[in-house]
Specification:
The chain is α/β, with parallel strands linked by helices and 227 residues long. The chain is built from 11 helices and 9 strands. It is 48% helix and 17% strand. The strands form 2 sheets. It has a 6-stranded mixed sheet with strand order 1-2-3-5-7-9, with helices on both faces. Strands 4-6-8 form a 3-stranded parallel sheet, covered by helices on one side.
Length: 227
């Protein structure tokens, strides 16, 4: 089974998280799959955009695979955090427009991943968005924090990070965490519609604007690289 699928629909690249049994939990295998997808997308030079969705109608990404992480040593866990920073940082700075099509639960590292994307639309009737790190006692690193802080509503970022509160699609839209909410049958068509609009933009200009918007993240990555 492919943990992550990549297909092209006209000029839109559709990335499908494809491990419904785990809720698309993050582990070494899934991070490796992300790298392979990113290697391909980073080579794209024609006008296009990316939609990141899930084959699981209940979960988009539930964060770290805890059944797996408990068997890792402290050193191995630190290595995993560095891998998360690398992979999610690449998603955040991918020189293509990105749209998250959040089909369901978007938790912890999954919420950080969603925050790294340029736009987010979420299922209206089911699923939680939450930064649960405060409750599982795993604080974000500076880079992972900058990724979460890419959400446009800074007050919402502060509240969600410090409380671990779970919000559904309607509240997520009200708080500016997601751009739109839709019922399941309209979610993917709308994501593709947004992606088609973005795919008409000049890529060089779009990338320059993205770098400006995400400048704090870029600076933090450069700082960490010097250590």
């Amino acid at each position: 089974m492919e943990l992550i699928k990549l297909e092209k629909k006209n000029n839109i690249y559709v990335v499908t998280l494809n491990d419904p049994e785990s809720g698309n939990a993050i582990n070494t295998d899934s991070l490796c799959a992300h790298r392979q997808i990113l290697n391909e997308l980073e080579m794209v030079s024609e006008k296009s955009a990316v939609v990141v969705t899930s084959s699981d109608p209940k979960s988009w990404c539930v964060g770290l695979d805890f059944d797996w992480i408990v068997d890792q040593s402290e050193g191995e866990f630190e290595s995993i955090l560095r891998e998360l920073e690398e992979v999610f940082g690449r998603w955040a700075l991918l020189p293509l427009p990105t749209v998250g099509c959040l089909t369901g639960h978007c938790m912890a590292g999954g919420a950080v991943f969603a925050s790294a994307l340029d736009f987010r639309i979420m299922r209206e009737d089911r699923g939680w968005f939450a930064f649960t790190e405060i409750d599982v006692k795993i604080p974000l690193s500076p880079i992972l924090y900058e990724l979460a802080d890419l959400l446009p509503n800074k007050q919402a970022v502060r509240e969600l990070l410090l409380t671990g509160r779970r919000i559904g699609g309607v509240d997520a839209q009200k708080m500016g965490v997601v751009d739109e909410t839709h019922l399941p049958e309209k979610l993917m068509p709308r994501a593709l519609e947004i992606a088609e609009e973005l795919a008409q933009k000049d890529l060089k200009t779009y990338d320059s604007m993205k770098q400006l918007i995400k400048n704090n993240l870029v600076s933090q990555i450069k700082l960490e690289m010097k250590k």
